[in-house]
Design a protein that fits this description.
The protein is globular and about 65 Å long. The longest helix has 33 residues, at 419-451. The protein has 3 domains: 27-211, MFS general substrate transporter like domains (Growth Hormone, Chain: A), CATH 1.20.1250.20; 224-278, no CATH class; 279-483, Growth Hormone, Chain: A, CATH 1.20.1250. 70% of the residues lie in helices and 1% in strands. Helix 7 (123-152) packs across helix 18 (419-451). The protein has 510 residues and is mostly helical.
Length: 510
């Protein structure tokens, strides 16, 4: 009897005798890996599109359901708080149920929540179903990153992430346009119902193209109940407090302070030798003892503060000062999205071969230059429209250069088994950075308006100096990133095997 031979592609460790290994970033991406990436990109695209579409239709929802604007605002706020509540659970869910099963469950939950939102009969029911939708949406991105990073391996993270970022970067532009079209020709309910067929197609493709999680059985982590009771409410309180702190009153500062205290208590709990009574902490703070991980996540936190706050500020300027509608504001943001999309593809190819430090510093420089024109708003008539469009393009180019090497630096600094915990931590910090940056800019804009009564453009110009400062702060951790390509990877790569069957997705042993 003749034994069946299985073709296995070996990636030898550094210094292995024999044929020279393929240089990082030069080996082609297998078709199965690209199919897997396409499916995993659909999840966050659904969530991002939904967020931007819903922001356009808040007024229509309030009129149709006869709800006050204060109550209807919880349609967006409840969704964001649900995301903050469940994101820390993604690492545990990946270990307990498997990243593939957990990701599929998150998408199904998001689709179910979308369908129920479209069938809502009151403001309260819509808010409740929106929270259910956020529970699914909050775990889609970290679980998808876990699957993609573990399948791609350290030498292909950049190119794979660059490909995934292409559709995601276009979502903030397509959302307002699509939302405007739906409101003009259908109703606000289709802002949610549209997710149902797209989500079902995503699930069917995932069942076909996402690899099953094989390998030897591993111990399934038990849930750290005390850690959950401290971390998730702490994050929710902090995010909520920061989001409403500019409204005045005591609710914002009180919620933020309570959230911060709960997070400090979680830090004490997670760092104890017997943290969780033998259960793995939801976010393993000991990962931050690794210099590479600590620096890369600090960079992600500051980039989240600069990115999300400016994404809030730029469309607000066009709508409040230039009197653009939501659809027109989306079109005006197109240069930034296109710059990010195009550059992310190029940065992904380069990031697998070059050190992250020079790439991220170059991206920060582009982002700073692209912000300068906005600091001149209200000064002598302000910059011309073409200059603002060119500046947005340059900002987008900077973001595209920063994001891919930044993500690659995070995941290259941990072992494969630690990827789920790393994905949970970096997504939590990125969102916290965004909430903090947006809160700071909201307060600054309010103060600037008081200083420039009757001149809103000048108030925005003053506020963009703070955007510039937030971007400049990220230079410090960027200078501490590795200055040599693939730093710290070769010792872990070893003789990792990546099986590439003739059909179907790439399968990496667990």
């Amino acid at each position: 009897m003749t034994a069946k031979v299985t073709t296995v592609k070996r990636e030898p460790a550094e210094g292995t005798a024999g044929r020279a290994p393929v240089r990082a970033g030069r080996e082609p991406l297998p078709p199965g890996l690209m199919k897997m990436g396409a499916v995993l990109a659909l999840g966050p695209v659904l969530a991002l599109l939904d967020t931007t579409i819903v922001n356009v239709g808040i007024d229509s929802v309030a009129r149709d359901l006869h709800g006050s604007m204060a109550a209807v605002q919880w349609v967006s706020t409840g969704y964001l708080l649900a995301i903050a509540l469940v994101t820390p659970l993604s690492g545990w869910a990946a270990g307990r149920f498997g990243a593939r099963r957990a990701w599929l469950a998150a998408v199904v939950l998001f689709v179910l929540g979308s369908a129920l939102c479209g069938l809502s009969w009151s403001t309260g029911s819509l808010i409740g179903f929106r929270i259910l939708q956020g529970v699914g949406g909050g775990m889609i991105q970290p679980l998808g990153q876990t699957l993609m990073v573990q399948a791609a391996g350290p030498s292909r993270i950049g190119r794979v992430m660059g490909t995934l970022l292409l559709p995601i970067s276009l979502a903030p532009v397509l959302g307002p346009i699509l939302g405007g079209v739906l409101l003009d020709h259908l109703s606000w309910r289709w802002m949610f119902l549209l997710n149902v067929p797209v989500g079902l197609v995503t699930v069917l493709l995932a069942l076909r193209w996402l690899p099953s999680e094989g390998g030897p059985a591993q111990a399934r982590p038990r849930l750290d109940g005390l850690g959950l009771a401290l971390l998730s409410p702490g994050l929710t309180g902090l995010v909520y407090g920061l989001s409403v702190i500019a409204d005045g009153g005591w609710a914002g500062p009180a919620a933020a302070a309570a959230g911060a205290l709960l997070l400090l208590a979680y830090g004490w709990h997670a760092l104890r030798p017997s943290a969780g009574g033998g259960r793995a902490p939801l976010i393993d703070l000991r990962l931050f003892a690794r210099r590479g991980f600590a620096v890369a996540t600090a960079n992600s936190f500051l980039q989240g503060a600069a990115l999300y706050s400016s994404m809030f500020l730029v469309p607000l300027y066009y709508q409040q000062v230039e009197h653009a509608g939501a659809v027109e504001a989306g079109l005006l943001l197109a240069p930034q999205a296109l710059g990010t999309a195009v550059t992310s593809l190029l940065a992904g190819r380069i990031a697998d071969r070059l050190a992250p430090r020079p790439l991220i510093l170059l991206g920060i420089a582009c982002s700073l230059l692209g912000t300068l024109a906005f600091t001149r708003l209200g000064a002598g008539g302000g910059p011309a429209d073409w200059l603002l469009a060119a500046s947005l393009t340059l900002r987008g180019v900077g973001m595209g250069i920063i994001l891919i090497p930044g993500m690659a630096a995070v995941y290259s600094s941990v072992e494969k088994a630690q990827v789920p915990a790393a994905a949970s931590a970096v997504n939590v910090l990125n969102r916290l950075g965004g909430a903090l940056g947006t809160a700071v800019l909201t307060l600054v804009l309010q103060q600037a308006r008081s200083g420039h009564p009757g001149h809103p453009a000048a108030a925005f110009g003053d506020t963009f100096w703070w955007v510039l400062a937030l971007s400049a702060l990220s230079i410090a951790p960027a200078l501490l990133l590795p200055g040599h390509p693939q730093a710290g990877l070769t010792a872990r790569q070893g003789s990792r095997l990546i099986r590439e069957p003739r059909s179907g997705p790439v399968r990496s042993p667990q």
